[in-house]
Amino acid sequence: MWQYSKKLEYPVKIKRANPAMAKLIISQLGGPDGETGAAMRYLSQRYGMPSDKVKGLLTDIGTEELAHMEIISAIIFQLTRNLNVDDLRKGGFDAYYIDHTTGIYPVDASGNPFSALTFQSTGDAIADLHEDLAAEQKARLTYDNILRIADDPDVRDPIRFLRARELVHFQRFGEALRITQEGLDAKNFYAFNPQFDQTN
Amino acid sequence: MTDRQKLLQKIRIAEFAVIEANLFLDTHKTDRTALAYFKKHQALLEELRDEYTEKYGPLTVSDVKPELCWNWTDGPWPWEYAAN
User: Fold this and answer.
1) Other C-beta atoms within 10 Å of A196: how many?
2) Set of chain A residues whose Cβ sits within 8 Å of the Cβ of B28
3) pTM over 0.90
């Protein structure tokens, strides 16, 4: 189970509203490489992992991703405070406003709602950990794309923190893959489906 | 920055060290330097959290000290400008 800790992992303090920026950054909440997908991916994949270390790592990184959903949500929340109709129109936030007002709803930058089809849980540790390595890189490059566009230092600061976390998670997943491969039967040279073919 | 925000930031810094050591130790369970680092920051975090709870209220429901009034729901909540 989980217990809520009443603080952000990294502070968000955005002085100026900017609905156009919110519309782009929201992709890291509901988009294909966002934090919601990351949390759901790792917390779904962990159950049948052959290594206890990897069960622990997926639990801990999955938990941190929940905290990152909260940071992105706080950024969107603060970027869309006190807007008037003119701000909504100019910022291109009017379509989102019709459906959600300024409520926080997981969509990508084009407005598509979050989909579990953006991640997998295959029951195969090798396949899942390769996906996790790719997922961290894709989240990192999305943050790079955001950083090329965002000029407000209040926005850039928490985005840079989140970007740095992707690099650390990538590193840890690389170790998890090595640990998993080392635990395989040496005869399983191609590392096929190590979970399903073993009794637990 | 208010005194409450300053203390909260110290807590975040200590907790970040704990999170980072936690993930590292998941894949390096006998690394003595990392174990010592975790222990040091875990103790610091506990101390800071106790101070915060005493002065400003609970950060988790486990820290609530129910007396005359339920203060867990008191704002600001973490995503609000005033909380950070």
Assistant:
1) 10
2) 175
3) yes
Type of residue found at A75: I
For residue A176, which of B76, B44, B24, B2 has the smallest C-alpha distance? B24
Domain positions in chain A are: 19-182
- Give how far B14 is from chain A: nearest CA, Å: 11
Chain B residues near residue A172 by CB distance under 8 angstroms = 23-24, 26-27
CB atoms within 10 A of CB B78: 22
| For residues B38-66, average pLDDT | 96
Interface contact A175-B9, CB threshold 8 A: no
CATH fold for domain A19-182: Ferritin (1.20.1260)
- Kindly provide the ipTM of the predicted complex, given to two decimals: 0.96
DSSP classification of residue A50: S
Q: Tell me the average pLDDT across B60-76.
A: 90
CA distance A122 to A193: 9
Distances (CA, A) of A191 to A10, A124, A126, A185, B34: 39, 9, 7, 9, 31
- Tell me how many residue pairs between chain A and chain B have CB atoms under 8 A apart: 72
Q: With CA atoms as reference, report the closest residue to A124 among A71, A60, A177.
A: A177
The pair of structure tokens assigned to A95 is 């379509």
CB A23 within 8 A of CB A93: yes
Integer Cα distance of B29 and B16 in angstroms: 19
